[in-house]
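Saturday, quiet lab. Running sequence design on the structure tokens for the scaffold JK sent over.
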């Protein structure tokens, strides 16, 4: 009787993990599609590249601004050559594969969603860099002339949110573990 109950519990846990995984891969796909759709809109219908100063003012603190980002986050590792471009593609693809494997093995739903945000954003940026040689960035959040953020895109935002969620949860787990040990 106890053995059957354990098997049933194990089957439910396995189904929950599979559902978490499936949900996460759907989220990653939706982030990828939203990222590519917004880049298409600013590139073609809005023709942001050919706007005066490559910019459309939306509000006093948010503009659409055309940026061809040949580097990675924070302008690091700028690829000034074809070889540099493909090295960045390879490096970011390796990171995306690592994240996908982590997502596949992860049991916690909140972590799978955070990893899905990172994966979807990374795939969108990898596709840009592979197709165009740069990543299309366009979201410019600013406060007057003060720009605390670089110009970014939906994929960058998803990556940032996903990483922050993972970090916050890791810090909260560490604190709750320390409280239990006290």
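Result came back. Writing it out in full:
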């Amino acid at each position: 009787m106890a053995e059957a109950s354990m098997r049933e519990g194990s089957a439910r846990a396995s189904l929950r993990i599979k559902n978490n995984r499936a949900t996460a891969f759907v989220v990653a796909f939706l982030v990828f599609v939203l990222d590519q759709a917004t880049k298409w809109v600013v590139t073609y219908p809005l023709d942001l590249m050919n706007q005066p100063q490559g910019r459309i003012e939306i509000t006093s603190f948010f503009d659409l601004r055309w940026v061809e980002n040949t580097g990675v986050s924070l302008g690091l590792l700028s690829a000034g050559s074809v070889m540099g471009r493909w090295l960045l593609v390879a490096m970011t693809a390796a990171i995306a594969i690592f994240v996908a494997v982590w997502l596949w093995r992860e049991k916690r739903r909140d972590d799978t969603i955070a990893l899905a945000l990172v994966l979807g954003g990374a795939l969108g940026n990898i596709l840009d860099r592979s197709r165009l040689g740069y990543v299309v960035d366009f979201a410019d959040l600013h406060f007057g002339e003060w720009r605390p953020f670089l110009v970014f895109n939906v994929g960058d935002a998803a990556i940032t949110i996903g990483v922050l969620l993972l970090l916050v949860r890791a810090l909260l787990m560490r604190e709750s573990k320390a409280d239990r040990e006290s």
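Notes for JK: The mean pLDDT is 90. Strands lie at 55-57, 62-69, 135-141. Ask whether to fix the surface positions before the next round.
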